[in-house]
Amino acid sequence: MRILKKISLRRKENKNSGKEYNGAIPQLRIDILRRNGLDCEPFWQSFEYTPRDISETVASALTRLNEQEELQDINGNPAGEIRWESSCLQKKCGACAMVICGKPMLACDAVLMELKQPVRLEPLRKFPVVADLMTDRTVMFRNLKEMEAWLEDKAEPSEKKNAFAHEASRCLQCGCCLEVCPNFMPEGRFFGMASMVPSSRILNWESVNQNPAIKDQYRYHIYDGCGKSLACQNICPAGIRIEDLMSRSNAAAVWRASSGKKSRGM
Amino acid sequence: MFQITIAGAGLSGLSAALTCAEHGIECNLISVQPSERAQSVLAEGGMNAALDTMGENDAPAFHFQDTMKGGVFLADPNAVKGLTDAAPGIIRRLQSIGVPFQLKDGDLLLRPFGGQKKRRTAYAMSSTGKIVMNALIDEARKYEAAGLIHRYDHAEIIEALTADYHLSEDYPAAKGRDIEDNFPAPEDPFISEGRRDTFAWTSSLKEKNVKAVSLKKMSGIKVRDTHTGKISEFPAPVIVCTGGIAGFFTGLTTGTTANTGDFTASLFEKGVQLGNLEMIQYHPTTVAISGKRLLISEAARGEGGRLFIKRKTGSSGWENWYFMEEKYPELKNLMPRDVISREMYRVMHSEDCGGQVFLDMTHLKKETWDGKLADLRKEVMSYLKLDPAKEPVPVSPGIHFFMGGILVDARHRASMPFLWAAGECACQYHGANRLGGNSMLAAVYGGHIAAEDALTFLNSGKMNLWTGNENEPCVNGDDPNVNVGELRVKGYDTRVNIGELRVNGGKPRVNDGDPRVNSDEQPGNADEQSNEQTDTSGRQKKGIDCTQRVRPSFGKKLTNILYEGLGIYRDEAMMNTACNRLSALEKEAATNTERNRILLGKAMLYSALERKESRGAHSRTDYPERRDEEYQKTTVAEYHNGNIRISFRDIPLQS
């Protein structure tokens, strides 16, 4: 139910920020921060675009712009194919994360007519740019490996743990949370919520999981560095209840674990 | 010592990789995007297994029957038996690696699904795919850290690499001799002008005075790093897990944009046989959203959702007509998908109906919404701006799954030596129509079987492993004259592979101007290779490579043509028109990838044209009857010397 509440809130929000349209859909301007690679200078390029309908997303606009035989910018200059990543187009894979009108979000979740005009598209800023709107997010996957986020032992099925396991399985590894996090730096020690959520899935099974490493890693790479701004929770495209997951994981990795340590020490 | 190359990191690719890793064998897991972006995460409803936790006396034999019947008896019964027997163990295994399948009183809760009379679909809300994938990703991460799984998750697969091997006239017919002294028999039917089914290999060589023939084996794959533009090659053996060919119908499927189908097309162009290409599943309950079709999971109907259409009543009013319930009183809204999609098409085009079919879930209980379909509701609300608990959802059939693909035998061997295929890219298990809940199961099982088979092969260190067993099942096992399984192994020279890996220190070779992986290349091929190198290195482009890929504008044109020709209902005129338009579009093809798409598109249309009957997902208005005598067979498409040939092969007998 909490999830549904959140959605309805978000819908309201969207309605407020969007304009009312009756009749013809106007032509929009889409500004894209383009770049041929990390070693190249970025530049803004504008495109004219008329949405097909009021629900058309940024992802669809990018697809259709690229489908044009000879893509031209607003001044009629030829423009190369706009490079961006996509996969599922329904908020389940995280591929198309980018900064849209200053806010990190999924292009498949950003409805053109609800956005501030002109629509501004930039690549995520915490990751190195590959080209145009495409970034190299490998650091997230490397961090998960360093977290040792895996089960060493068999999980025992348990009704109690299922709800938590479902919630902790919803992370898309899109990187939006890292983008807004005041504490996360790509090469820093704090790994952010993109590592916390999948790790919480492992910690959830802790009673059977005899992998102490993940608890140490959790304390070092997550617990110690989080400033609890919760900007991540507001931005998460999957609407994951990060706070809930974190408090449970803190309990498993920090409080219960350290009391265990003490007792062993005595 | 060996490495196995796995192309694709979705459910079947991960399953194959884990199987290798658990045996202590290294593998290269190659994908254009990380596993989190694979189409498998979209799977919703669940996984079928006759676990019999619902007190309905279920057994794998019933699961087998339903799968065969759902596929209208076009699937390989031996493969399906393996799948359905293994299913309960697979679910238990997934639970043990942390998949939170729904439980009741400590045991698995199963939901009813289409085409099955008993409840046997294990699930995790309606996000089963995402949740299962997460567990496998975690598990794979363990082996990545241990150095057994080498992940390359921004590597675009550009093309299949093949090498020639040769047969000469002194091929000995005697079986049971050491393979080192033998020559392999051909998988490839094109060594003679005769058809494969009448072709007796050993005698015909001499009769036809053929001195030597050249055949193809898989030698590896060529990939491009999307971050750096660098080209690399990974050696065979290759397990292909690249998913369906959603990319041939851009914007019109429930799949992802990353499942382009281009690698399947590349394999086809190199001579790999494809099967049942005409079998395209239209899922009954999809909705067009921005850029794609959104799937409303079959779980909605499994949990009680009802399909209806507005129908005129005598007194100028309208009534809700629950047409599925009226026409199919036993399974009602849970008939197999092909049946429902056809019924929907009919009522939608009926004059006394309102044109739009609705899925009514407004009567479902609050517990069902909260506990079982919460994420489905959330998704519908987010994209359609309506609450399915309060209003019926307007739905229509949309392309969802490709039953056809790379033809494989029960061990997932493809028609070319050293190539395996699993998951949606393979033609296996589903026949003419896939049952809901069988795709994830088949992906996990198929990936596992493919890897097991590849490992048996590699671990033996001897090529005569298969030759000792005359009953070895194989792709061409139905053909008494060609016992391929016994002999195909020769083309795979394991010594070459060991050498390569040593040279490269266990890492795949990067193509930096050195001669290609196989040093025993034909001079002609080597030339071709060097041309390609200059071509790609001259234009090393980051991100999306416009020189290799299909131009979106071209892809869109191809989509329109194929969609016209391969609808829910087809006829000869419609498909011929599509063939002609495709030939016209061929002139615009500028890259190999585009030419390959035309080729595979044609093969799909030709397959559909040749199957002159209606069966499962293939419904022809000009041939409305099912014709078992002629067509209870696998459609085989193969490409050779510039020609696409379609033939029909007998389905293996149940052993």
Q: What are the salient characteristics of this protein?
A:
heterodimer; A: 266 residues; alpha+beta; Ubiquitin-like (UB roll); Fumarate Reductase Iron-sulfur Protein, Chain B, domain 2; 5-stranded mixed β-sheet; two-stranded antiparallel ribbon; 9 helices; 39% helix; elongated; disordered N terminus; disordered C terminus; B: 655 residues; Flavocytochrome C3, Chain A, domain 1; Methane Monooxygenase Hydroxylase, Chain G, domain 1; 6-stranded antiparallel β-sheet
Shape of chain A: elongated
Number of beta strands of chain B: 27
CATH class of the domain at 293-397 in chain B: Alpha Beta
The average pLDDT score of chain A comes to 87
* CATH fold annotation of the largest domain in chain A: Ubiquitin-like (UB roll)
* Oligomeric state of the chains present here: heterodimer
Span between termini of chain A: 45 Å
Helix and strand string of chain A, N-terminal first?
HEEHEEEEEHHHHHHH
Query: Separation of termini of chain B?
Result: 36 Å
Relative helix content of chain A: 25-40%
CATH level-4 homologous superfamily of the largest domain in chain A: Beta-grasp domain
Question: In this structure, how is the largest beta sheet of chain B organized?
Answer: 6 strands, antiparallel
Q: Helical segment tally of chain A?
A: 9
Sequence of strands across the biggest β-sheet of chain B: 15-14-19-18-16-17
Determine the structural class of chain A based on helices, strands and strand pairing.
Answer: alpha+beta
Number of separate strands of chain A: 7
Q: Considering the protein shown, what is the CATH homologous superfamily of the domain at 293-397 in chain B?
A: Succinate dehydrogenase/fumarate reductase flavoprotein, catalytic domain
How does the SSE layout of this entry go?
The complex is a heterodimer of chains A (266) and B (655).
Chain A (H helix, E strand, L loop, with lengths): L1 H16 L10 E7 L8 E7 L8 H10 L29 E4 L2 E4 L12 E4 L6 E3 L2 E2 L2 H9 L12 H10 L7 H5 L12 H12 L7 H12 L7 H5 L6 H24 L1
Parallel strand pairs in A: 1-5
Antiparallel strand pairs in A: 1-2, 3-4, 3-5, 6-7
Helix pairs in contact in A: 3-6, 4-6, 6-7, 6-9, 7-9
Chain B lengths: L2 E5 L3 H12 L3 E5 L16 E2 L11 H11 L6 H20 L6 E2 L2 E2 L1 E2 L9 E2 L5 H18 L3 E4 L2 E14 L32 H7 L4 E14 L5 E5 L2 E3 L21 H8 L4 E2 L4 E10 L2 E4 L3 H4 L3 E7 L5 E4 L1 H5 L9 H12 L4 E8 L5 H6 L2 H11 L8 E10 L2 E3 L11 E3 L4 E2 L11 H22 L23 H4 L6 H10 L5 E2 L12 H16 L13 H14 L3 E2 L1 H15 L5 H19 L8 E2 L7 H4 L1 E8 L2 E8 L5
Parallel strand pairs in B: 1-2, 1-12, 2-8, 12-21, 20-22, 24-25
Antiparallel strand pairs in B: 3-7, 4-5, 6-7, 9-10, 10-11, 11-23, 13-20, 13-26, 14-15, 14-19, 16-17, 16-18, 18-19, 26-27
